[in-house]
Design a protein that fits this description.
Elements (H helix, E strand, L loop, with lengths): L1 E4 L7 E4 L3 E3 L2 E3 L5 H6 L9 E8 L3 E7 L6 E7 L1 E8 L10 E7 L5 E4 L3 E7 L3 E8 L8 E3 L20 H4 L4 H9 L1
Antiparallel strand pairs: 1-2, 2-10, 3-4, 5-12, 6-11, 6-13, 7-10, 7-12, 8-9, 8-11
Length: 183
């Protein structure tokens, strides 16, 4: 497994496993504490694992947490997703940068999203399972959402949106969300 920095988002990394494939399928390590530690992250900081299943075209996000934020490791364990990170850390050299990735069950690449960044994804396959490893217990009072189609972000989602939560549909613009975050 190797770790690669994401230039557009300071502190973000892609963890790329080396799958062993044969006639049975494949096997790969999806988390390695030594590799995580090698880029300055505490592998023991992650306290919660979650999984979502989405149908093609489903969009989830853009989500972030207020307060101390929430760092996460995100991996598409089955299918394929278009994944997006927006850096909203005011002291970051990549503040307001947007980066997108295609994550898939074929590669099992894991994306590290630093605390203070918004995150969202769209399912590109009929079924897409997305695994999250999060560094803080979930507190719904800290949940924040930003409009996926905010013109300021100009994210080119690859498919028409087939479904999303009501919370995501009613999400405020980036400007309004940032005002709320400051108060």
């Amino acid at each position: 497994m190797k770790a690669t920095e994401v230039p557009a988002i300071d502190g973000a990394y892609l963890f790329e496993p080396t799958p062993y494939a044969d006639e049975r399928g494949f096997f790969c390590r999806t988390f390695d504490s030594d590799v995580v530690r090698s880029v300055g992250l505490d592998p023991h900081a992650f306290v919660q694992d979650s999984l979502s299943r989405s149908a093609r075209g489903v969009l989830r996000g853009l989500h972030l947490r207020s307060g101390d934020g929430e760092a996460k490791l995100v991996r598409c364990s089955y299918g394929k997703i278009f994944d997006v990170v927006v850096d909203l850390r005011k002291d970051s050299p990549t503040y307001r940068n947007v980066a997108s990735f295609e994550l898939s069950g074929e590669t099992q690449v894991t994306l590290y999203v630093p605390a203070g960044c918004a995150h969202g994804f769209q399912a590109l396959t009929e079924t897409a399972d997305t695994a999250y490893r999060i560094d803080r217990p979930h507190d719904p009072a800290e949940d924040m959402t930003i409009a996926f189609d905010d013109p300021e972000l100009a994210i080119a989602w690859p498919l028409p949106v087939t479904s999303m939560s009501q919370r995501d549909r009613e999400a405020p613009s980036l400007a309004k969300a940032l005002l709320h975050q400051e108060s």
